[in-house]
């Protein structure tokens, strides 16, 4: 047997299958068994929306994969172990626009490696190990606009490294080792269109404009933060267009020398970050003066070298400055005079300080503030001075230490739209709390230990759209709790301890579209019909990770979701479930517009037959991690719109249930970690829309049963099979630990499939040959005619008692005649006294040869075939075997005796199908094995000739030689 080939071939039932297989093999044959990989399934990547994603795989690649199709527009090779980019790696990607090589180990890039990427716009080389950039490294990238190369250790740059990047507008070369500005000059002098330059954290200590250039640069944004700048000296107007400038986070303790001679040099900067910058007070004044007419946003974090109120006063005199950020300044008290001059400020960020107290009047002159953040401070209550800011629209008080809310806290904030109070601790709300917030649209109250809603939402907040109450300690929702929220669309109640949903608990929420109730303690009794029946416009309901577990699949009266006819998404899954659950057969009743259903991990053993008949629009079904093992097509046939099916980890042994379900729109199947062994052609053919199939973690039968699938994976231009090249074999034993895609389809040549192929293709070929070249093939046709006659003759002889003229007909090849004449003939005829029929001696001259053969075989009791390689090759000899075996099978008489003159290994017999089949059934005599004991050989032959035709007898007698 050939390794890896199963013996029983019960699969081939009809002729049509035979023809299909033949066509596959015909295709294969044309390609000389070299299968070109032109399909969609890649070894290390998957294609999604025109991009090759080769990242976050189990196995990281060390080279750029070769099988990425040249039609992709993006390649993501991030987080791998590539160390070198070769010239040949990106030769053929004419329409590639984005290439991500970040987080590899690249130390070397061959010159010209990117030369053919004529369409590339964006190249990411962040977090590699480049230290020296060679000459014309980016040759060919004339369309590149974005280059990210941060987190390398670049210390040296060749004069022409960046020469070709004439379109570049964005360059991030942060976190490197470009100590000197003249290195930066080598880079930017080639980049006429550069607008954004990030040079963060490069150890630059001297910034002298003459080192960069003598003419102006087009930069609009410059990030010099985290450099230990000692001197900042601009003597020429090199940044006429600079609007965004970050020189913050300077780790220098001594004051930086600031020499900007002309006040117009930075006069367009609108966003300035001077966090932790240490300048002498006069220099600081000079800096702020130079942006006096353009600044809108000023960031001053960690200004530990200054008296903050002085800085605030200076900056608030800049009339254009409207956004002031003062994070991380360790402020604990906001004094009343701090913002006296900040009349033009509209956004103030005071987050990440230690503020406990805001003095009265602190915001009296800042009437213009619209957005105020006080998050991450230590406020014990809502500070009263906030009510002075009558124009406030957004207030962030999250992550403070507020323990109590009072009715007057927000009394004056009638224009407030967003209020963030999350991450505080006020266990009970009050009914008067939000009464004045008539315009409020978003209220965030997460993680604030709220256990009681106390009618806070019964009469107020008519314009509220989003309410976040998740991560609190609510245990029940009572009748009318949200009655006043007539505009509410999103309600988050997840991660509470809700066990009870009382009747009418969602009354008034007629506009609610999203309701999140996951991770509570809801049970099947908590979600009765009446819980949800007011939510007529609900589109999304998340009930996952609760304690809902049905113990029967019998119908519910009434079904819980019967009023939710607009619902599109229902999530029901649990994270951890140990006990088995059942699905009531009508649980989905009423969900006529449901599109997405998530029922992961419910430990369902099966689905009730008609469970999906209520959801005809369903497009995405997730039933991962159940214990299904077997699914019926009937379950799926009502959901003809299904596009995505997730059935990983469900103990499935086959996907064949999909064949009859007829899901013609199904595009996506994820069936990881099942027990799928064979993927059949019928299955794939029944899914005409399939574009993505994920079968990771299954183990396959690596034999001819999967050849069709294997070839399809390689060829399909429509469907990609994720991870296909990692599919492992679990059968047959010799293939254990090997990969399915490494199984050689060629080995299926010598089994029945191949015979099948031979017979059909030769029929086709014969037809062609007969039609076109009858002239040259007359002789063969004549033979076919006689062979046909022989078959008739055979049929005629079937029931007729034939008189045996000879004891044995010897079938042999002329090549072996010497052995027959010198050894066999004397032994059998002279010594043992049998009557033999030999063609050279006993055939009737003039009679057609096929008649002679037939007569000789039917006229003899036995036929001895003397088998050698020559014999097998000879056409007539194989006819003799054929006729004899007709007799063998048709008359049920064992007339054949096989004598091997040479040792022929069984795999060499592969093409001689009939012979192989005979050998499987019969024992035989081997002359070479007889060795010196020829007497034993002749004795066995004598016994074989002696036996009558009863099959039992000869089995007993002929089992003298073991098969190889
Ligand atoms: C790339 O640049 C060339 C000129 O260098 C231009 O003709 C071509 O349209 C650009 N291609 C893309 C995709 O931008
Ligand atoms: C500055 O911007 C203006 C208008 O956007 C532009 O015309 C000019 O060329 C830019 N200056 C430089 C040096 O690129
Ligand atoms: C800035 O550069 C000018 C011209 O090169 C030089 O005269 C001046 O001393 C420099 N300033 C500082 C603070 O180094
Ligand atoms: C400042 O620079 C601008 C533009 O380069 C120039 O017009 C102006 O005369 C300079 N002013 C001084 C005081 O040098």
UniProtKB/TrEMBL annotation:
The entry's keywords: Glycoprotein, Immunity, Inflammatory response, Innate immunity, Leucine-rich repeat, Membrane, Receptor, Repeat, Signal, Transmembrane, Transmembrane helix
UniProt GO cellular component terms: plasma membrane
Residue ranges occupied by any TIR domain in the UniProt entry: 804-945
SMART domains: LRR_SD22 (SM00365), LRR_TYP (SM00369), LRRCT (SM00082), TIR (SM00255)
Residue ranges crossing the lipid bilayer per the database entry: 21-42
GO MF term list: signaling receptor activity
Intracellular or extracellular location(s): Membrane
Membrane association type: Single-pass type I membrane protein
One GO term of the biological process aspect: signal transduction
Main localization, broad class: membrane
Family indicated by similarity: Belongs to the Toll-like receptor family.
Protein name stated in the entry: Toll-like receptor 22
Originating species: Sparus aurata (Gilthead sea bream)
Lineage of origin: Eukaryota, Metazoa, Chordata, Craniata, Vertebrata
């Amino acid at each position: 047997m050939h390794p890896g080939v199963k013996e029983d071939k019960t699969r081939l039932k009809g002729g049509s299958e035979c023809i299909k297989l033949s066509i596959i093999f015909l295709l294969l044959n044309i390609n000389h068994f070299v299968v070109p990989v032109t399909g969609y399934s890649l070894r290390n990547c998957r294609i999604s929306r025109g991009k090759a994603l080769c990242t976050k795989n189990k196995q990281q690649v060390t080279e750029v994969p070769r099988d990425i199709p040249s039609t992709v527009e993006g390649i993501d090779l991030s987080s791998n172990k590539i160390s070198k980019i070769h010239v040949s790696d990106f030769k053929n990607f004419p329409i590639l626009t984005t290439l991500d090589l970040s987080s590899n180990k690249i130390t070397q890039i061959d010159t010209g490696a990117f030369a053919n990427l004529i369409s590339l716009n964006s190249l990411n080389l962040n977090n590699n190990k480049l230290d020296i950039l060679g000459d014309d490294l980016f040759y060919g990238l004339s369309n590149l606009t974005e280059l990210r190369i941060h987190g390398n250790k670049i210390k040296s740059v060749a004069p022409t490294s960046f020469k070709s990047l004439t379109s570049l507008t964005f360059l991030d070369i942060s976190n490197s080792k470009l100590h000197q500005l003249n290195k930066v000059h080598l880079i930017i002098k080639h980049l006429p269109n550069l607008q954004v330059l990030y040079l963060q954290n490069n150890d630059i200590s001297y910034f002298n404009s003459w080192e960069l250039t003598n003419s102006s640069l087009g930069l609009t944004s410059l990030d010099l933060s985290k450099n230990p700048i000692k001197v900042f000296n601009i003597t020429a107007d090199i940044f006429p267009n600079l609007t965004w400038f970050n020189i913050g986070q300077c780790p220098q303790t001594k004051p930086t020398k600031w020499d900007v001679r002309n006040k117009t040099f930075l006069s367009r900067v609108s966003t300035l970050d001077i966090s932790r910058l240490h300048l002498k007070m006069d220099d600081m004044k000079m800096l702020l003066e130079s942006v006096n007419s353009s600044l809108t946003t000023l960031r001053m974090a960690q200004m530990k070298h200054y008296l903050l109120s002085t800085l605030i006063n200076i900056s608030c005199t800049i009339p254009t400055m409207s956004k002031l950020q003062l994070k991380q300044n360790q402020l604990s008290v906001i004094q009343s005079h701090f913002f006296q001059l900040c009349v033009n400020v509209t956004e103030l960020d005071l987050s990440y300080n230690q503020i406990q107290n805001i003095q009265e009047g602190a915001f009296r002159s800042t009437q213009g503030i619209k957005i105020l953040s006080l998050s991450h401070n230590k406020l014990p209550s809502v500070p009263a001075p906030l009510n002075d800011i009558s124009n406030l629209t957004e207030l962030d008080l999250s992550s403070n230490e507020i323990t109590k809310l009072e009715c007057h806290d927000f009394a004056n904030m009638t224009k407030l739209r967003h209020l963030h109070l999350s991450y505080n601790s006020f266990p009970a709300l009050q009914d008067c709390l939000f009464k004045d917030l008539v315009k409020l649209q978003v209220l965030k109250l997460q993680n604030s230990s709220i256990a009681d809603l106390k009618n806070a939402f019964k009469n107020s907040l008519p314009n509220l759209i989003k309410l976040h109450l998740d991560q609190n300690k609510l245990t029940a929702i009572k009748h009318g709790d949200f009655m006043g929220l007539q505009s509410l669309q999103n309600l988050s109640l997840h991660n509470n301890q809700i066990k009870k949903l009382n009747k009418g608990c969602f009354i008034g929420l007629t506009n609610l579209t999203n309701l999140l109730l996951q991770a509570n303690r809801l049970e099947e009794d908590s979600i009765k019909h009446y819980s949800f029946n007011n939510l007529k416009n609900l589109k999304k309901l998340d009930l996952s990770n609760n304690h809902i577990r049905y113990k029967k699949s019998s119908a519910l009266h009434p079904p819980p979701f019967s009023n939710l006819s607009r619902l599109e998404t229902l999530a029901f899954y649990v994270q951890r479930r140990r006990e088995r659950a059942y699905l009531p057969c009508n649980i989905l009743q009423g969900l006529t517009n449901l599109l997405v259903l998530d029922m992961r991990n419910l430990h369902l053993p099966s689905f009730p037959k008609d469970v999906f008949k209520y959801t005809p629009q369903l497009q995405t079904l997730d039933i991962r991690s159940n214990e299904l093992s077997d699914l019926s097509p009937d379950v799926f046939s009502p959901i003809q719109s299904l596009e995505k099916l997730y059935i990983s980890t469900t103990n499935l042994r086959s996907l064949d249930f999909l064949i009859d379900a007829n899901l013609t729109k199904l595009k996506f199947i994820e069936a990881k970690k099942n027990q799928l062994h064979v993927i059949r052609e019928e299955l794939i053919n029944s899914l005409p829309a399939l574009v993505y199939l994920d079968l990771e973690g299954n183990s396959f039968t690596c034999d001819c049963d999967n050849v069709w699938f294997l070839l399809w994976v390689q060829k399909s231009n429509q469907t990609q099979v994720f991870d296909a090249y990692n599919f492992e074999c679990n059968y047959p034993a010799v293939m254990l630990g090997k990969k399915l895609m490494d199984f050689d389809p060629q080995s299926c040549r010598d089994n029945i499939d191949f015979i099948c192929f031979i017979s059909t293709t030769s029929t086709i070929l014969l037809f062609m040959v007969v039609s076109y070249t009858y002239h040259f093939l007359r002789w063969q046709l004549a033979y076919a005619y006689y062979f046909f006659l022989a078959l008739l003759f055979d049929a005629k002889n079937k029931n007729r008692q034939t008189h045996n003229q000879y004891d044995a007909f010897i079938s042999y090849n002329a090549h072996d005649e010497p052995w027959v004449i010198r050894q066999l003939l004397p032994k059998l005829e002279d010594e043992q006294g049998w009557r033999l029929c030999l063609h050279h001696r006993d055939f009737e001259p003039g009679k057609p040869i096929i008649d002679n053969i037939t007569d000789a075989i039917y006229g003899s009791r036995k036929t001895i075939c003397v088998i050698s390689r020559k014999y097998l090759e000879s056409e007539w000899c194989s006819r003799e075997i054929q006729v004899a075996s007709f007799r063998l099978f048709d008359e049920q008489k064992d007339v054949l005796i096989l004598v091997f003159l040479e040792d022929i290994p069984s795999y060499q017999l592969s093409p001689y199908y009939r012979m192989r089949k005979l050998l499987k059934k019969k024992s035989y005599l081997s002359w070479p094995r007889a060795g010196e004991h020829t007497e034993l050989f002749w004795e066995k032959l004598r016994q074989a000739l002696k036996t009558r035709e009863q099959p039992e007898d000869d089995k007993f007698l002929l089992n003298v030689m073991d098969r190889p």
